[in-house]
Each structure stands twice: as structure tokens, then as C-alpha cells.
Amino acid sequence: MSTEKALEAARVDGGTVAGSSTEGWGLAAGCLAGATVLGLTLQLTNGALYGPLQEEALHGLTRTLLVTLCAIAASRLGRWTLRVEAVLAVLLGGALLLQLNELAAEHPGRYMQLQGPWPYAPLYLGLAAEALIAGALIAGSETLRRWGVPALLLAHLYLGNWMLHASPAPFIDVFVFQTQGAEALLHRINPYSITFPNIYGSTAVYGEGLVENGRLLFGFPYPPLSLYLSTLGQVLRGDPRYGHLMAITLAAGFMAYARGGRLGAGAAALLLLTPRGLFVLEQSWTEPFLILFLAATVFCACRAPRALPYAFGLLVAVKQYTVFMLPLLPLLTPLRGRALWGLLWRAGATALGVSLPLMLPNLPAFVRSVVTLQFHQPFRPDALSYLAWWVSQGHEQPPVWIAFAAVAVALAVVLWRAPRTPAGFAGAVALVYGVFFAFNKQAFANYYYFVLGALCLAVAAHAPLEPASPRR
Q1: CB–CB of 175/169 below 8 Å?
Q2: What is the DSSP secondary-structure string of 279-332?
Q3: How many structural domains is the chain composed of?
Q4: Which of 89, 145, 366, 438 is surrounded by the fewest CB atoms within 10 Å?
Q5: Is residue 469 assigned to a domain?
Q6: How far apart are CA 85 and CA 280, in angstroms?
Q7: pLDDT (tens digit, 9 = 90+) per residue, 194-239?
Q8: Could you tell me if 257 and 149 are in contact, meaning their C-beta atoms sit under 8 angstroms apart?
Q9: Domain that holds residue 436
């Protein structure tokens, strides 16, 4: 039996690709709590460890990891019922209110350039629209959700467009990387062979030997798929961040439709209204692309199993550290043996297909910019991580291998306890990467934004699908 037929058979038979029979309500409840706590934590210090709130931010990170661990451990707790779904919907509504309160209390950007008597009126108008739509999605009928989800996505596009107009040129190197990388690609110049200006004037944020005469001695630092999407934004609106805005909006759509129901739509709203979401968009960080393909992968596992290998291949290709998702693949699909290898080789061919056109013209430059650069990145004492806190207490810098050892433990836990379902896969991704970042030498708001997206996706993918039609 081919890989596609095996996946389709599992879905029709009510296997773990489509069903949630092995899941209780513990996974959804824990991931909902984790996403809420993490979103409020990132609001404290923009996902960094500095200032008088550093202890509180670290405590918030610890609570997030513990809640997520409990969600995995208690994933089979209780039986899923309509009453449980109603209770979780109420909790989801409360989480959205907490997030809206934070958004209204502190403006989302850092480099906004606003004029006029009511400069923040579009922000509050967009937030009010998203809040009203989100409430209707959680409390309303399925018929209302058919219209409400597209309305929510359009409202977020409006809000994101305002953010990009309000902050047209953020002072951050990743914005320079993506803008100049896209321009190089459009002019048929290899983006991995160029160099960038050191806009900070300091070498503290770059590794030793990576700065010379005011230039950064590496090319575009992300995989080709990320560059394609940034370039799309550059072509359409003259700003690579429009690619990010489209990505996170599409990701929310995949979340809402992966299983359907009030929890799917509510989890999408939770992602879009997380307090630092617009800040991540303003700063031009690439994690929206990662969340997009993670959401697409889970959506395909739930709704379109034949497309799963290709969605997973794009997910692996979009960021350097997605390699940790490979051991988690048995949680996502019931395929085993030759059928699983069939999925893997299709995913690998997809990842290579989107990457090779920019890798091969100058392979050494690609390896230097995308791979070895990561090993030269310096320890950041302002990172939101336990290692940064340890150093702030006067101790020596811990070795880098601690993060990989922590990942190995997290992988063992989730492979032991997480359910073999798309929701279990998303929850496992959240825990593994949350642990990895928490024990890493660099970890900021964008890193944890991805973890938050995975937690929201675990909630969305948990909502039950309508029963599959029996085979004839």
C-alpha cells in the first residue's frame, strides 16, 4: 500500500490521524494554560531577561514549562465531552480577555512613528473588531463560525497592516537581512554570498571574527524557503514583513479549520491576540513562517493526509532547528515501517527541492551563513533562559551542550507520554522547543512565540472532528 493510501485509510478508519480517541481533556486544558501564561510572560520584558522584572519573567517561563509538561503527562486524563468543551471554551474566553487587557495597556511596537490627534485609533478599532469576532466564534453556532473565521483573519490583516505602516523601518538587523536578502534575490545575486552593514556599530551581538570594517561577514542567515516568503512580501508591498503577516494569518486559518468547532476558532484568536504578536511582526522575526508550516502540517494530518509529506517537508526546510521534529513524527502519523519511510523521503525531497536552487550556486557560502554561523553566535546575558539567569548570579557561563541534553530528556518524555495524534504532536513540539530555548545561549520573544503557536495549535487540533463517513 502506498504512503498516500495508507494515510487515507487511517483517516477513514478513524485512526489517530483524524481521531482524538486516545486524548482526554488534560492536553487541551494544559496547553491552553501554557499559551496564556507564556503570552503574558513575554509581555513583561519583550521576551528578554533584564530590568527589575527579570525574576518574574523567569518565573513565568518556569510556569509555562511545568504546565506544558503536566499537559503531556495528563494528556489522557478524563473523557472528552460536550460539557468539558464548554468549560474549556469559557476558559479560552477568559484567556482572551487577559490578553486584550495587556494589549490595551501597552502599545505593541517599539519603533512606531505616529502622527495626528488619534494615532492609536486604528489599533483599538482593530482590537475591538477581533475581540467581538472572537467572542462570537466561541459562543456562537457552527453556521456563525463559517463567516466568523474569515472575518477574524481579515481583521488581523487590517491590524497587521496598521502595525507595518506605523513602524516602517524598525532598527533591528533581521529587518536589514530580509530586506537586502530579498533585493539580492530579485536582482539575481546569490543572497548567501553578500554581506550586510553592522547597524549596531558593536560586535557584542555577533560572534568573534564575524565583523570587519563595519560589515557582517556572512550572507542571508536563514534557509531559502524563509527568503522566498520574505521576498514575496517585498514584491507585493515593498516590505518583507508583509510575508510574515500573511504567514501568521494563514496559520490561524489552518488552526481554526484543522478540527473545526469553537476551540479551533478560539485557539486561532488566542494566537492572533497574544500581546507580543504585533511586536514580533514589527521586528521582522521569521517565526511566523515556522508557525505557518507547523499549522499546515497539523492541518494536513487532520484533513488532508495525502499532502502531509509535503507540508512536513516545508516545515523541516523553513528553519535550522526543525531537525528536532523528526523524532516526533510517530506522534503525528500512525504510519510505520516502509510507509513511514515513504513519507520521510517525500518530505526530504520537498525540503531539498525548495532549498537546492539557492544552496548549490555557492555551497560554502550557504553553509557558512546558515549552518556554521549558528555555532559562532555569542552567549547573550539578556536572553530569557536559565543559563542567562545563572550567569547573572555571578557564575561562569555553562557549556552549550546543556541545551541539547535537555532536549534529549524532553524528547524521551513526550515520546513516552504524548498521545499519537496531531494535537499530541503539537504539544510535544511546544515542550521540546520550550525546553531547548530555556536552556539555550540565546532565547528571546520570537523563539517563544513559536512555542506559543505550537501550544495554541495543540488546543485547536484537539477539538473533535465530525465523524468520518463509513466506507462503502
Answers
A1: yes
A2: HHHHTT-SHHHHHHHHHHHHHHHHH-GGGHHHHHHHHHHS-GGGGGGGGGHHHH
A3: 1
A4: 89
A5: no
A6: 31
A7: 999 999 988 888 988 899 989 999 999 999 999 999 999 999 999 9
A8: yes
A9: 3-462
